[in-house]
Structure formats: C-alpha cells, structure tokens
Specification:
With 139 residues, the protein is α+β, with helices and mostly antiparallel strands. 25% of the residues lie in helices and 35% in strands.
Length: 139
C-alpha cells in the first residue's frame, strides 16, 4: 500500500533527478563555447605565450595546447623567450554565415566561431638586443 509520504518521496526523487540531468546538459552546452589551440614557435623551445581575444586572456608554454573561449574577435598572440626573443601574430576566427549577422560587432557567445587549431608565431631577436651583429646582454 502506498501512503502519502511514499508518494512525496517518489516525487522528490523525480524532481532531484531532473535537476541533475539539467545540470549535466548545461555543463555539456558550455563546453561547445571552448576549443583547444596549439601555439607553435618554430625553431624555438621554451618560449611563453600570451593570447588575448576581447576581454579574455590566456597564457601557455609554446608547443602546448590551451583551451580558449570561442569568440568573434581576432585573437592576438604574443610569445617571448627571455628578454631578447619576441614574436606576435593575430588570427581571426571563421564564423558560420548563419551566425555571422547575429554576433558580429558584439562579444556574444559564438558556437560556430573557430580559431585555427595551430597558431604559428615566429620569434626573432629584438632589434634593441643587437649591437654591431653581436647580441648584447641587456639588464
């Protein structure tokens, strides 16, 4: 025989299981707003990189992956090694035409915005660090 307290308990279990399912769905939905990017510095190991897109910024070691938020803005990537080597580049995301009108000119979430999977940054010796074809140690 089912009494009122058992019905209330069963109802509570259904409500709580429904909440847990919504939380998992929401967490899965937010993962589509991010993507992994590799920053590569050809010929240079041990460099450190900063990535900036809109108000979001990230740091990573060169030749490794970093998770970034998909956004309609161009991403500026700056890498350096020590005080003498530096490099910069900027990459633009591709945007699906169906979403382009909605997000361009705003910083809204962009499900279809995709940055290149690999960003190459060429590092060069800073001109200030070179004196008469010799590297001068600056302090």
């Amino acid at each position: 025989m089912i009494n009122k307290s058992n019905i209330a308990l069963i109802g509570l279990v259904f409500i709580l299981s429904g909440c847990a399912g919504d939380g998992q769905k929401e967490a899965g939905d937010t993962s589509r707003h991010y993507q992994a990017i590799s920053v590569v510095t050809p010929g240079v190991t041990g460099a450190h990189c900063f990535l900036q897109a809109g108000s979001m910024s990230y740091t990573t070691a060169a030749n490794s992956r970093v998770m970034v938020r998909r956004a309609p803005e161009a991403m500026d990537v700056s890498c350096f090694k020590g005080a003498h080597m530096v490099g910069h580049t900027s990459v633009k995301p591709t945007v699906a035409p169906r979403e382009a009108e909605r997000i361009l000119g705003s910083s809204r979430d962009c499900d279809s915005c995709v940055y290149p999977e690999s960003v190459h940054v060429v590092l060069a010796i800073r001109p200030q660090s070179v004196e008469k074809n010799n590297i001068r140690i600056m302090q």
